[in-house]
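lol ok so funny story. i was supposed to be doing the assay writeup but got distracted and ended up predicting the structure for this chain instead. priorities right. anyway since i did it might as well share w the group, maybe its usefull for someone
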Amino acid sequence: MSLFESFRRERKEEQDIERDRTNSFYNQNPYNTNNLEEDSDLIDIEEAEVVIRETIPAVEDQSERKEIKTYADKKPVTKVIGQTKIIAIINQKGGVGKSTTAIDLAAALGELGKQVLLVDLDPQGNATSGLGIDKSNIYRCVYDILLNDVKIQDVIIPDVCPGLDLVPATINLAGAEVELVSEMARENRLKDAVGSLRGKYDYIFIDCPPSLGLLTVNALVAADKLLIPIQCEFYALEGVTKLLDSMKRVKTRLNPTLDIFGVLLTMYDGRTTLSRQVVDEVRRYFGRVVFDTMIPRNVKISEAPSFGVPITEYDPKSKGAQAYSSLAKEVIKRG
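and the output, tada:
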């Protein structure tokens, strides 16, 4: 027997085995149409009872989108405005609670009777959406202030919360870093805009992006002071040294009055040794500028942005709301 004939014979045996296996499965399959005639226990499909079940409706978006007003619709201010303080909330590391702190601290100060403006300078626009503003309905944003010479009053959305106004951000801001490169006086664009509002607000907060690009430089030039949130995690001080170097360069060449207003410890969990070690390390490094108030790791703080409200409105009795209210009082005390 040749090698070719042997191979052909083995191949034929394999095909026979496969055919027998297929036929065996087909004969035992309960859905085989031939078996339906033999099985008298099966129910005729025309006589089967149809069961109608109610479907659960999809969960709607929980956030209540706020009406977008103009600055002309702002409620009249009945109190005397003190000296305006422009504070940039900044840390080049992401996920440390910058936008959360910007929203909740600004809202807490508003509830204490202060007039506050929050400038969203982050292309992600988390501070905008976190306050219940639908970014798809925004006609103008901070991008237009920086590059289209639009007056800041034409962009402000007033009274998003008691005492709190907002300069929103949209995805258009993502291209500002590149477009600002060729502009004259590119570092002073935001300073010129917010400087015109001195005397109209007690506090102006700038929510910075997690980078050290031209948007952040604009914030550093525009601000009087810096508020640095630091997460109570292993990489807490990572990148802070670069931020401080950038602050020193801006202070030397562009903004001589720039200084650190305070360092805020966020996502603190007193049950872990790591959090306590980070607190000790940060206090040893920064000294007295560290706030006494620490923001705890709290699920209510994480839930509030999805409802488009600050934590002080979402759950005033939660530990997170109490912490930001305490921080607001400490900010006022520092002057």
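The first helix runs from residue 3 to 28. The domain at 73-334 is CATH 3.40.50.300 (Rossmann fold).
back to the writeup now i swear
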